[in-house]
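This is your field. Have a critical look at both lines of this record:
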Amino acid sequence: MEDICNGYLGAYGAALHTELSQALTPTIVKFWSAKRCGIDCVEAALFYLYQTAHAERLSLGSNTCFDGENQTVLPEQVVKVESLAAS
């Protein structure tokens, strides 16, 4: 979503981040990749676990961007899709 919003901002000068964030359901998509990730992925995963264990609202610090370098994540690489919709 962030890449699309940034591209739209660059092309049309209008920011969509807030509107889309409010309209969409936060979702975790767990998938595997042969691409090596940096330490920032581990840090974000640990902070996600900490916030979840302490029943804290998730923040941007518990999120990271995976740069697949324009390579498609194939359906067979998707392990789990978890909706974080408020119940």
Observations:
- The mean pLDDT is 88.
- The helical segments are 2-12, 17-23, 39-53.
